[in-house]
Design brief:
This protein has 207 residues and is of the alpha/beta class. The chain is built from nine helices and seven strands. 42% of the residues are buried. The mean pLDDT is 95.
Length: 207
């Protein structure tokens, strides 16, 4: 971890109200859990990572600092996205991060983003069906989606095998590194039907 840039960026994000008020260190540990999930599956860092609904920068900033891979921070909120652009321009920041302001349902069909990513991460993006549908088109076949999960609910109750199958995703089950994460792998190409137009995944979830 960079000794200066990352803590400064996260403290500033918290000061602006983009992160919760709790201490930064537990939030960093939670973000590192995404990396541990990936590293349990794959021996090397992802080449291309997309952080879905990046918000105040978690887990995206922590993963960028850890892996120094090509990473896209995707969020539809201009204020938070502009903050991320600001901190990525600070001295010491990795040079491989890029911020895109757009709806996931739309950006997933852009040629420069469709099917390009080894890993998509999501922290507090939305319910399972919404997250899966909005994330899947960004992934390569064989790519991984890692989602932060509530500690008490069981995986089978949240992630429908049938619904995920419509998207080409297969749940690998719950992982725990302090907190819970759901790990899903894209095993086949996604139908051109998904994701549906902006707002539809939330209004009419697949499961």
């Amino acid at each position: 971890m960079n000794s200066d840039w990352l803590p400064r960026a996260l403290e500033e994000s918290r000061a602006r109200g983009f992160l919760g008020p709790q201490p930064i260190e537990p939030q960093i540990l939670h973000a590192q859990g995404f990396a541990l999930c990936w590293e349990a599956l794959r021996p090397t860092p992802p080449s291309d990572l997309l952080d879905l609904g990046s918000g105040g920068g978690l887990p995206g900033l922590v993963l960028l600092d850890r892996w120094r891979c090509h990473e896209v921070f995707l969020d539809s909120m201009g204020k938070r996205s502009n903050f991320l652009k600001e901190v990525l321009a600070w001295p010491g920041a990795p040079e491989t991060g890029k911020v895109i302001i757009a709806r996931a349902e739309e950006a997933a069909r852009w040629p420069e983003l469709e099917g390009k990513f080894d890993l998509v991460t999501a922290r507090s993006f939305g319910p399972p069906a919404v997250t899966a549908e909005c994330a899947v088109r960004f992934l390569k076949v064989g790519g991984v989606l890692i989602v932060s999960e509530p500690p008490s609910e069981r995986s089978a109750e949240r992630w429908s095998e049938k619904g995920l199958g419509l998207l080409g995703l297969v749940a690998q089950g719950r992982s725990r590194y302090g907190t819970a994460y759901e790990v899903l792998v894209k095993e086949k190409s996604t139908s051109r039907d998904y994701p549906r137009p902006s707002g539809t995944p939330k209004k009419k979830p697949l499961f």
